[in-house]
Amino acid sequence: MSAEAASSQNLMPNTVHVFDYLDAEANYVPAAVTVVFGDEPFLKRLAIRSLRQRVLGDESAPLDRFEGASAQWRDVHDELSTMALFGGGRRLVLIDDADDFVAKAREKLEQYAERSKSRNVLVLNVTAWASNTRLYKFVDSHGLQIECRAPQKATYGKTKVVDDERMVKWLASWSATGHRLKLSSKSARLMLDLVGPEFGLLDQELAKLALFTQPGGEISPDTVQDVVGGWRAKTVWEMLDAACDGDAAEAFAQLERLLQSVDHPVALFGQFSWSLRRFAAATRLYQRAEQQGRKPKLREALEGAGFRDWPKGTLQRAERQLMQMGRDRAGQLYRWLLEADLALKGSHSSSDRARFVLEHLILRLAKQSSRRVPPAIAPGSRRT
Amino acid sequence: MELNYIEQDGVHIVAFLEARLFDDVVVQESRRQIEELLAQHSFDRLLLDLRSVSVAGSAALGMLIRLKSRCAQRHCRLALCGLQPSVQEAVRITQLDKIFEIYKDLEGAVAALQTTSAAGPTGPTLLR
Hints:
The complex is a heterodimer.
Chain A: H1 3-8, E1 15-17, H2 18-23, E2 33-37, H3 41-56, E3 64-67, H4 73-80, E4 92-96, H5 99-115, E5 121-126, H6 134-142, E6 144-147, E7 152-154, E8 160-162, H7 164-179, E9 182-183, H8 185-195, H9 199-210, E10 218-219, H10 221-227, H11 230-244, H12 248-259, H13 266-291, H14 298-304, H15 314-331, H16 333-345, H17 351-366, H18 368-371
Parallel strand pairs in A: 1-6, 2-5, 2-6, 3-4, 4-5, 9-10
Antiparallel strand pairs in A: 7-8
Helix pairs in contact in A: 5-6, 7-8, 7-9, 8-10, 11-12, 11-17, 12-17, 13-14, 13-15, 13-16, 14-15, 16-17
Chain B: E1 3-8, E2 11-16, E3 20-21, H1 24-40, E4 45-49, E5 55-56, H2 58-73, E6 77-81, H3 85-93, E7 101-103, H4 106-115
Parallel strand pairs in B: 2-4, 3-5, 4-6, 6-7
Antiparallel strand pairs in B: 1-2
Helix pairs in contact in B: 1-2
């Protein structure tokens, strides 16, 4: 990873974003303790596949796998202490969902990481990986840890948002290597707009696009618009329209339709929040311009937040939706999204409860009383 | 994951017996089993019988896409039959109806696959 990339991700040399790791695998050596961390299962699969290839010589070679909730350190250690009969004698021991395992066996893991001279590799697949722990610091300086989440960049001070440019580059590159498709930046950007930064869904849509063309064929923005989850994006827009317009019943009907297409409501939250975060960012840009004494233009704020006028009319529609939403609600979007995100990862992670979180968010957007208030964010207007 | 595999007059038929194709692990397992069948036999016509399936989530639709791609690599014609309304709707809104041969019932599908060439009709056929 380049120093610049490391710096942009706030990562040390042995802590690397999965994009950088996959771009230059040879620069990173799988260590006795290797950690794959973050909340993107698809990116984790790519990282683990690569580790498997490099340690065992074949990405489908058998590995020793434990479930984090039930794994015992002594069993894991036994596996790590023996040589494999095949594959050059090295073992790769993978602990899935290892957060609980790490919490239970932290001390043993620290000792193992510091003392092990084994050529075998222990891979911890965790969601959370706190940088202030002894284990993190040790692996950071002597092991390898691969961050598997959407790349981020700083915008307002410490606020971070998804780095669209890196996502677009990755999408174009992955479409070529993973699906033998040519995807221009414009097509990749449109795809990202339609699907959101959901790597599993993006990969599935690329697989679908590959069936519409010959291997190596180029995918035009029109084809992307026609084929890629357009229905889903359309429905999300319609749901937002209805919610912003105070029509909760219609928004719920659209939500119901969307829920038919996913395994778990949390899969919808990505795209839902992708759209709303950009509204939240546009609101901040607008307010910042006001604070600086400038007369802001709503359309510029939306463009600054990542909205594009593709397909034509998108900006106009976004402008209308933000005006419908009004300053008060738009100003609270970040907080609402954070609350929803935390609930989905914690108390409301089951399917039924996750659905409630989405419905609650819709209700907040659709709050009837706000309909009667003139759109306070309309250009030229001021909050009273 | 329960799958039923039979051969009928040169058409290889895999029937899904689960009503809900939702769970990622279940779907991956059925995909693995079908890919194993494809690897073991040199099918040129494969029919997926979905009559028992009442709900198909995105993982199931993803499986269909992967199988279509795998069959294309092996020059095997892949068709679907017996889609219940909710599955039909999911296939339609995800535009998969543009890339799959889809038949209303098993008998019609077998007859069509028998009488037309292994290369298939000139384009996707929707709910014949």
